[in-house]
Design goal:
Length: 154
């Protein structure tokens, strides 16, 4: 089952304290880093409040190097954030590292290839230079986007 924004938010809520501990931050310091009050941070850590979409994306982005988050998300948090943020949109993506660690190649379409993240299970299409062309939790949507590109509609 594809990960939803709500799933991602819940996961970030649950990982907040572990990420804070991993980085050696006090609650005050972590609240400042995320732009929250200490009271709100404490409420989130106790499961009584939530980061919401913006806070969850901020946590994953600010602490992108976190081993805790990499282990839960399957690598670079920006991939899953972009897949969730750009659902039903056609953004231009920057070049990737080619999926050496957290990705498996499922299909090849000429110069393109479709990969799936081994943990989050979302998909992405890469061009021959490892540039991300499209990202989604729906494999058929990725295939359709590649068919459009091959047909000259991209």
């Amino acid at each position: 089952m594809p990960v939803t924004r709500d799933d991602f938010i819940r996961e970030m809520d649950q990982q907040l304290k572990l990420v804070r501990t991993e980085h050696g931050f006090t609650q005050d310091a972590m609240a400042q880093a995320l732009g929250l009050s200490k009271k709100t941070l404490v409420q989130i850590e106790k499961g009584r409040a939530s980061l919401g979409w913006m806070g969850a994306a901020a946590l994953a982005s600010i602490f992108a190097g976190s081993q805790v988050l990499a282990g839960r998300l399957g690598g670079e948090p920006s991939d899953i954030i972009q897949a969730l943020a750009f659902q039903n949109l056609k953004p231009h993506y920057p070049r990737t590292m080619g999926g050496r660690v957290w990705w498996r190649t499922l299909e090849r379409w000429g110069e393109y290839r479709i990969q799936q993240n081994i943990l989050s299970q979302h998909y992405r299409a890469l061009d021959g230079q490892d540039g991300r062309v499209f990202s989604s939790f729906d494999l058929e949507e990725v295939r359709q986007r590649l068919a459009e590109l091959e047909g000259g509609d991209g």
